[in-house]
């Protein structure tokens, strides 16, 4: 009984700490390319993990992105409701889906293009009703090179649906499919492979037989994609840029 009481006190303390006046919350709604990973999955890393430490103490990042989720299952499993039930005036929600919505082979998560667009619009309307701010992103590219050494388009129709919804609703928009395609293309086949889950056999305890995965990022890839998102926010002159972490002067190298 004492343990339960202590646990409840800790939970309430955390809630009030997060909800203290002046705190801006960034909620993250998305799939495995954005989500927090368990230790058993490392070095697989969602870009939302390094992104969360870019901001100062006035910002609290709540990453609710989950592996395998589409816009449809994010709703049916109650993950979207968690955001809407807790979001406050002036908060932000990053929305990035598409990988699983477009997967016809996995009918448990597949969402038709029109329903995908409707779900995104529904999310944005919910956020607007709470007087918060949506930031819509196209899904990051998969790493599929053709014989000519060019990255293939991996989100046909669905990325365009995101662009369409962004234009129709007027929300802040980052075209991460184009941004990541340009970035990984610049690195080439070998360089880009170092950013994804490519591990040889007997090199990592989590993957004794090795793994070749051109969808999910490793720690390096996730950090660089998070940096690409931040760069786009700076290009937009987004208000969140004013809430970035200030470096410790001790860590800055003196010039001259």
From TrEMBL:
GO terms for molecular function: hydrolase activity, acting on ester bonds. Residues 58-206 form the SGNH hydrolase-type esterase domain. It comes from the Bacteria. InterPro entries: RhgT-like, SGNH_hydro, SGNH_hydro_sf. Keywords: Hydrolase, Signal. It holds the Pfam family Lipase_GDSL_2. Residues 1-19 form the signal peptide. Belongs to the 'GDSL' lipolytic enzyme family. This is Rhamnogalacturonan acetylesterase. It comes from Pseudoalteromonas fuliginea. The lineage of its organism: Bacteria, Pseudomonadati, Pseudomonadota, Gammaproteobacteria, Alteromonadales.
